[in-house]
Amino acid sequence: MTGRAAGGGAARGGGRTKTGKPRPGTGGYGKRKLEGKGPTPPAEMRPGHPAQRRAAAQAKPAGRPGPSSARGQASGAAQSAASAGAGRAGPSRGSTARSGAASSSAARARGWDARGSGRGESRSRGAGSAAAELVAGRNPVLEALHARVPATALHVGPRLDSDERIGQAVMLAADAGIPVVEAGRAELDRITGGAIHQGLALRIKRYAYADPADLIDAARDTGTPPLIVALDGVTDPRNLGAVARSVAAFGGHGVLVPARRSAGVTAGAWKASAGTLARVRVAQTANLARAVASYQEAGLFVAGLDADGSADVGELELADSPLVLVVGSEGKGLSRLVAQRCDVLARIPITGPAESLNAGIAAGIALYAVSRLRTARG
Questions:
Q1: How many whole angstroms separate alpha carbon 335 and alpha carbon 326?
Q2: Beta strand 254-258 with 227-232: parallel, antiparallel or unpaired?
Q3: Rounded distance between C-alpha atoms, residue 110 and residue 118, angstroms
Q4: Is the dihedral of CA 119, 110, 227, 277 positive or negative?
Q5: 244 neighbors 269 (Cβ within 8 angstroms)
Q6: What share of the chain is helix, strand, coil (3-state, %, to 5)?
Q7: Predicted TM-score (pTM) of this structure
Q8: Cβ(257)–Cβ(269) under 8 Å?
Q9: For 147, phi and psi rounded to 5 degrees?
Q10: 222-269, pLDDT tens digit by residue?
């Protein structure tokens, strides 16, 4: 009696507790059902294994091919037909890849980066990111709209309080032809990545960078010697915007920036430029030293701003020549490879206690000095 009770209890509750819930570690099954099923069978005996399908096909009569062999024959016939069609239609993909590699090598041999050498290409690279930028917050959005930053949409959340800035943002967006989209708070949290948006978010249009050679073409159209500013290691977008503003003020023809580890055209750059980025072209290159060398091959001289330069920027002999001004970062200055490429290193005399100038101010001073020298020399 005791044995049957014990046995019955074990049978009823082997995998479950008294309340009927699965016993921890068993998934509701008893110990016997959790035991292994023995050694793994050979490949020829496993259903669905390629070796098992081959063995089954060999075991069938030769006159009636099995499904696997029929599929294999059909696949082989399709591949043969595709190969024959490709041979009739034109070169194969392999030859296309080889010709593409050859064209890239030829582009590099000409000195231009293969990705940025094509004329008429529609490229819109973001600054370190392919996604469009979002400006969040009532004051930042309002400032961006006042600065005429190109935008694709203004996202407006629920108005929980009366703030005239929201109404102003909607009016400015409507006047600029920017679509106004109503969004819930959860949607605004999602698109802004959890930033403090205060019910407003502005989606900035991605900037279409120019090709480095386009800046020379812009100078040729104006009939003046090219004057280009290249930024080496400048990572603050506000400096890029300030440089673009100085380029527009002193007759420059564009700004060149590296594609990596450099500031790009963002909402901060647009605001710092006070809208001049709509008139000043910014080109992007994968290798700044290589682009500088290409400018030299095209007949331009390169002057780098350096505190230990041998020439005074106010007395630069190359000022009236086709010129590229290279501005480095405030902390590190010019990189070694770019400095070696420069035809001359020029300094800005500093008489006060400041040890250095940021990139935006240094570029503005140098551009003013070059513009004054060009005017004086006629």
A1: 10
A2: parallel
A3: 12
A4: positive
A5: yes
A6: 45, 15, 40
A7: 0.58
A8: no
A9: -80, 5
A10: 888 999 999 998 989 999 999 999 999 999 999 999 998 888 888 888
